Every structure is written in C-alpha cells, then in structure tokens.
Amino acid sequence: MALREFPTPWLAQEHSRVRTPGVGMRSIIPLLAARDAGLPWATWGGVGRSTVGRGDFGRRVPSALDPQGGRGRPRSIDPSTLPRWSYPLVLVLLGIILYIGALSTVVRIGVGVETALFLVYLLLRSRRTRHQPPIPARVLPLFPGHLLLLLALSLLPAPPAVLAVLWMVVPLSSVTYDFVASWSRLGSRFTLSILSILYCIIWADLFFLMERIIVLGRGLGGTWEIVTGVGFALLGALWLFLGVIRHWKTRGI
Predict the structure, then answer these.
(1) pLDDT by residue (tens digit) across 26-36?
(2) pTM of the predicted model, to two decimals?
C-alpha cells in the first residue's frame, strides 16, 4: 500500500508499524476501517487514537465510528440514593425549616446534625466501588419528602416535641436499612427480618406523623379524630403488609 494514500506522515508511520507483529495493530486497524468507509481524514482522530497529529490538544474527536469521541458510556445514576446535585436543595430546605419552624433549640440542633450525617453517609456511599445488590425498598431518595413532612410539623401552632423526636427516627432508620441491605446477603432470613422490621418502623412512623399533622392542623376532635385515626391505621396496615411481602419475595436474589 503506497504511503501517498495517507494524508499525513503520522498515519503513514502508523501503517508501517503493522509490519511488526503485535505493534500498532490496535491503532491502525480502526484507521484503515475509517479510510475504507470513505470518511474524511480529519474525523479519524476519534478512531483508535486520542489525537490526530497532536493538533487537537488531546481531545477525542467524535466520528461516525465513534460518536461519543471515546468518552464511553455515561455513568448511570443509582436510583436507590439521592443524586449529588440535590444536596444543596436539601440544605436549603433544612435552612427554611430551622428558620421559620416552631421547633425548640434542642430539636433544631438534633435535626441539623442528623441531616448533615445523612448527607455524609450519601457521599461515602457514592464513593463505594463494591457492587450494589438490589434493595427491596428505596428509602434514601424519600428524604426530601421527609423534610417536607417536618416542615409541615414545624408550622403547627404548638408542635409537640415528641413528634419531632419521632421524625428523627425516620432518617436514622433509613440509613440503617440501606446499610444492612447494601452490605448483607439478601437471601438470609435474618437479614430480611431486620429489613422488614426497619421498613415497618419507617412507614408506621410516617403514617402516624401524617395523621397527627392533619388532626392538629385542622383542629379535629371527637368523632372526626377517631375516623381519621382509623383511616390512617387501615391504610398503613395495608401498606406495611404489602411491603413485608415484597421483602420476602426478594429471597434468593
């Protein structure tokens, strides 16, 4: 093959290296394929080599054979956790709660520390290179919704301190749930039992808080308070029953 078929001396040099066994094969074969496909030689930089004549400052050039320019597939987002771009939004929501909420100083400190530790756990979790097993329930992405529930609780005329303490159980149980699910074997009866208990604690706590917020916020009493409590109890029991069944169906993964 004549060297004049290659538009630059570097491409001709790459072609000449094929004559030595095991040298230059990875770089020259994609170039030959691009040439045979009739592609312009200026687009050959994205095929098999990161530069063309060192003229593009190390950037891979997208081409018909390599549309992404050598960047590969983008990193997928883990649906079982919060994306990093949402962390500032969580902090902003926390600041709003601490600023306008009618919470005691001790509760404010506890909520702030717990939220900070929650985000630290998410950062450490995102750096883990260990394979992530499938998790029966995704509880970590619900944390912004939990903060909205705390905001509604803090806006009550006189929110009981015990309700704020019960809310603080939810993030702690969520982190514990994710940690157990991520580092344990899901086929184990013991592991599934722990996850089922934590799942029931999280959602029973949330249903109780939602019922209290509606009752106290609307000023319900007497028969209406009983009806609201029974309705949330039935709905919560059905939700927990279906959740436990879903956990035990994951056995053998």
Answers:
(1) 555 555 555 55
(2) 0.66
